[in-house]
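Try it yourself: sequence plus zinc ion, in.
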Amino acid sequence: MKFEVGQVIKMKKAHPCGANEWEITRVGADFKLVCRGCGREVMLPRTAVERGYRGDINN
Ligand SMILES: [Zn+2]
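Structure, out:
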């Protein structure tokens, strides 16, 4: 699976704010994802992103 900065993805778990659209702002061993519902930023290991990934969101 290829991930890149600017890609917007859906994850297995929605954010507590209710949104499930995440913009990737950093890739590497750890990813940074920004919730498009509330703007909160989270860091996740790449393995967690790969496991939770549920598809792309086309903007
Ligand atoms: Zn959120």
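One thing you can check immediately is this: Strands lie at 8-11, 22-26, 30-35, 41-45, 53-56.
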